[in-house]
Design goal:
This protein is of the alpha/beta class and 343 residues long. It has 2 domains: 2-117 and 304-321, 2-Layer Sandwich (Nucleotidyltransferase, domain 5); 130-299, ATPase, nucleotide binding domain (Nucleotidyltransferase, domain 5, 2-Layer Sandwich), CATH 3.30.420.40. The protein has 10 helices and 10 strands. The strands form 2 sheets. It has a 5-stranded mixed sheet with strand order 3-2-1-4-5, sandwiched between helices. Strands 8-7-6-9-10 form a 5-stranded mixed sheet, with helices on both faces. The radius of gyration is 20 Å and the shape is globular.
Length: 343
């Protein structure tokens, strides 16, 4: 079964064709990063306009790269939540029109579930067989930081999630305060590899209630205030060392909580995904912790860590298999919990 995926939740206009939820036939992304760089972050109105300009040719290119026509597509999957509402509406509206014109099923996909599905696209090997539920998913991105039991392909049970800022937002806001260009996460990662994490002692968050929840707002505020205070004193701060300390703090928080949750719940298979899964500090620390415990770890290739349509098409395949489809009343939703959880 060939699914056409469409993704437009933030500043990437993307389309992809995936076969049977596992094999990428095409994957096209039109990034707006260079345009938003001058503003230091994504401008929602501008992002929506660019989606309108890009979506037609991106979908056409995805079909062309896959050497397929719409007649050979079995379903259309689209990100409908969560994300920037104007950006989402472009993708949802286009997908609805395409589904009505072609007579193909319309398949709604939650963006966070899509990130988890990126690991279904990994090539199978003797050391790393194809990922199948149940497993413990760790979804770490600019808008979401969450540990969830993936009970089956369409059923998630959240174990812990961020109560305020996500890890990716913390990286980006701190990067901006340090003077790095947008998107800042990659620049923090590069600087961290030159720095000494022990040069700074950063605050650690201890959560009341659920020990697996996250909070990164305090870490972000501490670093922003430290930078402002240093500037007011006319002093310079070592950005490499601060980047290393920041990266280590986030990686440790994610890794320790994931390991504790896995041991308590009895999981030996972990799957990392989301934009922050591209961060070398997070990848390396989680890989080391899993290796020490004999856990199997799945991580998407860097090309599938950020927003893309291949992950949406992959999750769309499993949604369709579970009977999850939509009609012309499908609407975009800016904020929505995973399936089966309260908002």
């Amino acid at each position: 079964m060939r699914i056409l995926g469409i993704e437009s939740s933030c500043d990437e206009t993307a389309a992809s064709v995936v076969e049977d939820g596992r094999r990428i036939l095409s994957n096209v992304i039109a990034s707006q990063a260079d345009e938003h760089k001058k503003y230091g972050g994504v401008v929602p109105e501008l992002a929506s306009r660019r989606h309108c300009e890009n979506i037609l040719w991106v979908v056409k290119q995805a079909l062309s790269d896959a050497n397929l026509t719409m007649d050979e597509i079995d379903g259309i999957a689209v990100t409908y939540a969560p994300g920037l509402i104007g950006a989402l509406l472009v993708g949802v509206s286009f997908a609805k029109g395409l589904a009505m014109m072609s007579g193909k099923p319309l398949i709604p996909v939650h963006h966070t579930e899509g990130h988890a599905a990126a690991n279904y696209l990994l090539p199978e090997s003797a050391e790393l067989p194809a990922l199948e539920p149940p497993y413990l998913g760790v979804i770490v991105s600019g808008g979401h930081t969450r540990i969830a039991e993936v009970l089956d392909y369409t059923t998630f049970r959240t174990v812990g999630k961020t109560r305020d800022d996500a890890a990716g937002e913390c990286f980006d806001k701190c990067a901006r305060a340090m003077g790095f260009p947008y998107p800042g996460g990659i620049h923090v990662d590069q600087a961290a590899q030159r720095g000494d994490a022990s040069a700074f002692r950063l605050p650690k968050t201890k959560m009341d209630g659920n020990p697996y929840d996250f909070s990164f707002s305090g870490l972000k505020t501490y670093i922003v205030n430290l930078l402002h205070h240093t500037e007011q004193l006319g002093q310079e701060i070592n950005r490499d060392d601060l980047s290393a300390a920041l990266q280590q703090a986030i990686a440790q928080d994610v890794t320790l909580k994931t390991m504790d949750a896995a041991e308590e719940l009895g999981y030996k298979t972990i799957a990392l995904s989301g934009g922050v899964s591209a961060n070398s500090g997070v990848r390396n620390m989680l890989a080391s912790a899993c290796a020490q415990r004999g856990f199997r770890l799945y991580m998407p290739p860097l090309a599938l860590c950020g927003d893309n349509a291949a992950m949406i098409a992959a999750q769309g395949y499993y949604n369709y298999q579970a009977g999850i489809t939509a009609d012309e009343t499908l609407n975009a939703v800016a904020s929505k919990e995973l399936r089966g959880e309260s908002a």
